[in-house]
Specification:
about 170 residues, five-stranded antiparallel β-sheet, 4 helices, globular
């Protein structure tokens, strides 16, 4: 059913999704792999090998959230992973075919690029540079993204709605 407060912050999927094979596929991505299949053809990155420290699909009621943490991301990588996971969840692709997509190293093998709606950068970590007393450091490129397939954050939507209600009361 529709929840107007989360519509702006979530990627809504109208098809029934089977989360179990999606979760198995998400787990396959953990570790070091060549992510060419999950990279935009417009990427200018020389190397397409990345290490996913965390790749998991989490169910929470009617919401599915994809959590991914890596040493770096390629252009549209997370969105393409999510689009391909949606293909698996809809039964358009099997987990074996998903594994073949990873090894194909061909963008055409993967699913569509999911909309950015719901994609949230949660954290960026920097390695401390021992030469700097200000800890300016060099970027370790460990970013943490959460892509909620159905809902990004109830708390954010509620916080905004509370702010609007307060503004209406003051007016």
């Amino acid at each position: 059913f529709r929840r107007p407060l989360r519509e702006r912050f979530a990627l809504r999927c109208w098809h029934r999704l089977d989360a179990a094979p999606m979760a198995r596929c998400a787990a396959l991505l953990a570790g070091e792999h060549d992510f060419t299949s999950f990279c935009s053809v417009h990427s200018e990155a020389a190397g397409k090998t990345r290490t996913l420290l965390r790749s998991e699909l989490v169910e929470d009621g009617d919401e599915l959230r994809y959590h991914v943490e890596a040493d770096g991301f390629l252009y549209n990588m997370v969105r393409i992973i999510v689009g391909t996971l949606l293909e698996v969840g809809q039964g358009k692709m099997t987990p074996d075919e998903f594994a073949d997509v990873l090894s194909a190293r061909d963008r055409r093998a993967a699913g569509p690029t999911a909309a950015a709606r719901g994609l949230t950068l949660m954290q960026v970590r920097y390695r401390e540079d021992p030469r700097s007393s200000h800890h300016e450091g060099t970027k370790k490129n460990v970013d943490k993204h959460t892509n909620s397939l159905i809902h990004r954050s109830r708390r954010l939507a509620q916080k905004r709605e509370n702010g609007r209600a307060k503004a209406r009361e003051e007016a």
